Amino acid sequence: MKTEIKKIDNTKREINIEVSGDIVKNKFEEVFKKISQEAKVPGFRPGHAPRDILEKHYASSVHEQVLKELIPDIYNQAIDKEGLDVIELPQIHEVKLDRASLSFKATVEIAPEIAVKNYKGQKIKYKTISVTPDEIKRNIDTLKESRKIEAVDDNFARGLGYPNLAELEKAVERQIFIQKENQQRQRIETEIMENTLKDVDFKLPASLVSRQLQDLLRQTKIDLSLKGIPRQKIEEQEKELISSLEPEAKRQVKMYLVFAEIAKKENISLDDHMPHQVMEFLLRQADWQAE
Fold first, then answer.
1. Does residue 237 sit within a domain?
2. Residue 20 belongs to a domain with what CATH number?
């Protein structure tokens, strides 16, 4: 196999691939054999038609099948040989095939080179979470107003599914505590993410941004539809939606690629759980400081 790589830009490469000899000849024989066993040629029983007649009737089918079976294998071998980290399906073009050779070009998008550093030991400020009596009272008063109840007592608590007012207050305290805990966790994760990304600069692969943008657009359209906005009105707003969603799509792609680079450095599996595992790693490695 001969391979030649041409750099188009920072994330795109064109690979010129050529193979010849037995690998092509054997694939033609393999496909012809398969077709000869299944072909229905008038005047001949299946599997008994002469080769020249088969080639006359099925030359186009054989050619197509050889390409279908051979190109993916050869392409994958070329990617492995060159050690390319391809992140998108290739664009195959300029395909040439005869009985002894195959050549084609594959335009691919590769993961950009990302220099990630200083991601360990990030300073995290955290607060000890507590719930004040005033916060509990305000929440219970809100419940009271929403139900137009005059007295906050055991009877009021029972109407909400609690045996008495004291148990209702405990439940409200737990809810406020969990809410504060989640807010602090989200704040810390956002700070970790922003600190990890801020000093990393590279060209984002256009295909990944486009794919993420389409995912965000599709979900936004669903959300708007569920809110009762007519489909026609949503479609009319598509350009504005795309413009507003593009920065978030770019941020998400950048975050994923940076986290993937950290995962490689720290031997974290690149599977569907990778972003969560990297975040957990960064949190474990952080410098936690009480406020």
1. yes
2. 3.30.70.1050
Same domain for 91 and 173, yes or no, is no
Nearest to 109 by CA among 95, 92, 89, 93: 89
Question: Does the pLDDT at position 43 exceed 70?
Answer: no
Is residue 51 exposed (0-12), middle (13-18) or buried (19+ Cβ within 10 Å)? exposed
Instruction: State the average pLDDT over residues 148-175.
Output: 94
Domain boundary among 67, 84, 109: 109
Does the predicted model carry a pTM greater than 0.85? no
pLDDT grade for 242, boundaries at 50, 70 and 90 = very high
What residues contact 78, with CB distance under 8 A and at least 6 apart? 1, 3, 15, 17, 106
Q: How far is CA 54 from CA 35, 59, 180, in A?
A: 8, 7, 75
Domain limits at 67?
A: 2-109
Say if 62 falls within a structural domain. yes
- Give percent of the chain with pLDDT exceeding 70: 96
Domain count, the chain: 2
Up-side HSE of residue 52: CA atoms within 13 Å toward CB? Answer: 0
